[in-house]
Amino acid sequence: MWKAKWNSMKLLHPETNKTWRISVEGNNITTQLENRTPKTIEAKYPNEKAVQLIMTQLRKGFIYSNPDADIWEPCFHTYLNRIYPGFLPIAANINRNDFYVFRAVGQFEDEVIFHFNSFGKHLDSYHLGKDRLTYRAKLLDDGRIVLNSTYSPYNRMIIEIFYPNGERIEEIQEGELLDTFKDTDDHADTFNDFKISYIGYDDPYNRGIFKIEDIKSNMLVVEFFNEFIGKNAFCAFSSNKLIVHTDNGVLSLYNIP
């Protein structure tokens, strides 16, 4: 996010239409809400402090949206909520523009599925109930979602299928969908000739590192950072976006070729 060529950001609150701006120049950070007087502070580690200030605004409901961002640059950031971040499944499909992300509430009081379109608009939420955790998810072409989950009363791994239209879920006992998650990697995905991988958390810079590789040539295309990661993140491609779901509760979208 904070590259030398990009040292400013504007956030928008979709309900109030208020704007909040931040810019970094050297050790100075300047913020401005609407047309109020700008405030400037000096920070020893300006980028880290800037990310903290941005997170505060994201938690208040502000979003970052830049549809014209360059390829492999973030075009959207939004905050989901403070809930259990252990696993961060993304149900996406390279033949569809929409996608789903999963988060467990508190100490497994509920599991919530958030449905978004490719512009980052929140379309719906679904509640799957308590004492469960989904490890992996896949969105099928027809809109059904296959889940690899545990349900604590039985303490066993199960494969389920969720029907968003009917809001019902059922366990799969047999059939080819049982092998949906064979040889899958939650921290990597492919799209056309590209592969994305989450390398890991980059200390002491407080950011997650991703790399994009050309599958045919096995060459590095680009390496980029996401500062909204505590330690872990999942990533996946839809038909026209790269999706990053972070343990700090931030959903980020990136433009792809």
Write a structural description.
By secondary structure, this protein is mainly β. Helix content is 5%, strand content 49%. The longest helix is centred in the first third of the chain and has 14 residues, at 46-59. The radius of gyration is 19 Å and the shape is globular.
Oligomer: single chain
Spatial shape: globular
Helical stretch tally: 1
Q: Summarize the amount of helix as a percent range.
A: under 10%
- The unreliable regions are 1-5
Look at the helices and sheets and give the structural class. Answer: mainly beta
Radius of gyration: 19 Å
Spatial order of the strands in the main sheet? 5-6-21-20-19
Largest sheet: 5 strands, antiparallel
DSSP strand content: over 45%
- Mean pLDDT across the residues is 92
| Total beta strand runs | 21
Layout: helices, strands, pairs:
Layout: E1 8-12, E2 19-25, E3 28-33, E4 39-42, H1 46-59, E5 64-65, E6 74-79, E7 90-91, E8 99-105, E9 110-116, E10 122-127, E11 132-139, E12 145-151, E13 156-163, E14 168-171, E15 188-191, E16 194-202, E17 207-214, E18 219-226, E19 233-237, E20 241-246, E21 250-255
Antiparallel strand pairs: 1-2, 2-3, 3-4, 5-6, 6-21, 7-8, 8-9, 9-10, 11-12, 12-13, 13-14, 15-16, 16-17, 17-18, 19-20, 20-21
